[in-house]
Amino acid sequence: MKAAQISKAGGDFEIVEREIPTPGAGHVRIKVLACGVCHSDVVTKEGIWPGIQYPRVPGHEVAGIIDEVGPEVSAWKKGQRVGVGWHGGQDNTCPECRRGDFRNCRNLKISGISYDGGYQQYKLAPVEALAAITEGLSDVEAAPLLCAGITTYNSLRHSGAMPGDLVAVQGIGGLGHLGIQFANRFGYKTVAIGHGTETGVLARKLGAHVYIDSAAANAAEELQKLGGAKVILATAPSSKAMSELIKGLGPNGKLMVVGAGPGPIEVAPIQLILGSKSIQGWASGTAADSEDTLRFAELSGVRPVIETYPLEKAAEAYARMMSGKAEFRVVLSM
Ligand SMILES: [Zn+2]
Ligand SMILES: [Zn+2]
Questions:
Q1: Residues 181, 182, 184, 188, Cα dihedral to 10°
Q2: CA–centroid distance, residue 102 to ligand 2 (Å)
Q3: How many A from CA of 202 to the centre of ligand 2?
Q4: What is the 61 CA–ligand 1 centroid distance (Å)?
Q5: Residue closest to 156 by CA, chosen among 191, 188, 199, 194
Q6: Ligand index nearest the alpha carbon of residue 94
Q7: In contact, 250 and 227? CB cutoff 8 Å
Q8: pLDDT, tens digit, for every residue of 129-187?
Q9: According to the model, what pLDDT value does residue 261 have?
Q10: Which of 18, 87, 7 lies closest to 52 in space, CA to CA?
Q11: Sign of the CA dihedral running 55, 61, 66, 71
């Protein structure tokens, strides 16, 4: 089989021939049909995550078919369509797991970091990582929903915002274009915050009721004119932009951080104290949350906008994603 691997931290993608792996206990083998290229793959490519063993195949937005089942697997069968997202397995023994908070497992395994991911024709995965893919979604549609999709869906549904509340989505890219769609389908008054007038046309098409062009207006002031945001889903990796947006929160408002920019978010204590405001980060979700995401997307018509590349062009696909010019998610199609 073919795999696109990174053989050392900071190394380039290499297309190599590998033996098709055999699943061990509690694992299945997936014939990969699509894998999203996520900005977080940078941690594997550049060796930012501690303890990565190379060579490593990146990829945590995997969609495919179970093609072999290992010993001690009862709930999954050959031929089933499945996906693997960021949550690649938990230890079931840490304090968080013992409380059922698997998402925050202290020894979380991540596909493409802890073990080989989806930039290859076949991959192994533990059963805790498997999400069933609903019939109405194609493989290339399902793949980005397993990281960009679940991150925006799961953070918004746990944000405390209720139908009718003012919810802003900052950044209209890989995460944001899904965040706008989910916010609209959840019944929020959805505000998109982007750069330039052209982006506004697109944001409205995705479901934004209001568009704020941050190049032409102060986004926080515009949000205050609308009553202040209950939630601002911050997706664009700019800590400076996030800091400035805190002034756009209404009473009990929350800045929900899902975009990982470098540098600190700055806030004066009084900004949080007056109006009981908060800043919260959110990471992905479990395989069960992935299934919720896929089911909701199928039901409500939320779909990622994608550009596809063949596996052999993994390097080109990755470069396209890193350029920030992709509209909006890059997906490898096998
Ligand atoms: Zn990701
Ligand atoms: Zn754990």
A1: -150
A2: 6
A3: 41
A4: 7
A5: 188
A6: 2
A7: yes
A8: 999 999 999 999 999 999 999 999 999 999 999 999 999 999 999 999 999 999 999 99
A9: 85
A10: 7
A11: positive
